[in-house]
Amino acid sequence: MFAIAQRVLRENRFEPEMPEGIERDVPAHDPSEGILDMRSLPWSSIDNDDSRDLDQIEVADQLAGGQIRVRIGIADVDALAPKGSRIDQYAQQNTSTLYTGVHIFPMLPELLSVHRTSLLPDGERLAVA
């Protein structure tokens, strides 16, 4: 079944196998200059409770006059996968993570999607809000 899933992906111009050593392209340190810390806000997510690759979060504030402000936080993967890098090229080719019945074919290396950019509440992560 796995081989069939790989074949179907290739037939549809997806690359099912991430290039070997691609995680070495992830910079060792996150850029942090000019960052506004918004972790104290009561962020929530529409993802499942067990999601490990949380890439978007949201928070709503009641404003004066009954208005509501909704902020959306998107994981800043771009800060760690620079344009033109092997990670960027692979993600650009596949455009999304593919979930099949036999295997998950990720768009990004797990080091990025689960550890360095996931917006889970267990650490500091960059996001665009």
Number of helices: 3
* Contiguous uncertain segments of 5+ residues: none
The general outline is: globular
Biggest sheet, open or closed, and with what strands and sense? 3 strands, antiparallel
Helix content: 10-25%
List the strand order in the largest sheet: 1-2-5
Q: Give the structural class.
A: alpha+beta
Structural Rg: 17 Å
Could you tell me the number of beta strands? 5
Q: What kind of assembly state do the chains in view correspond to? A: single chain
- Whole-number total of structural domains: 1
Short description:
The protein is of the alpha+beta class and about 130 residues long.
What does this structure look like?
By secondary structure, this protein is α+β, with helices and mostly antiparallel strands. It has one domain (2-128). It is 20% helix and 16% strand. It is built from 3 helices and 5 strands.
Features of the shown structure:
129 residues; alpha+beta; two-stranded antiparallel ribbon; 16% strand
Task: List the topology elements.
Elements: H1 2-11, E1 56-62, E2 68-75, H2 86-94, E3 98-99, E4 104-105, H3 110-116, E5 127-128
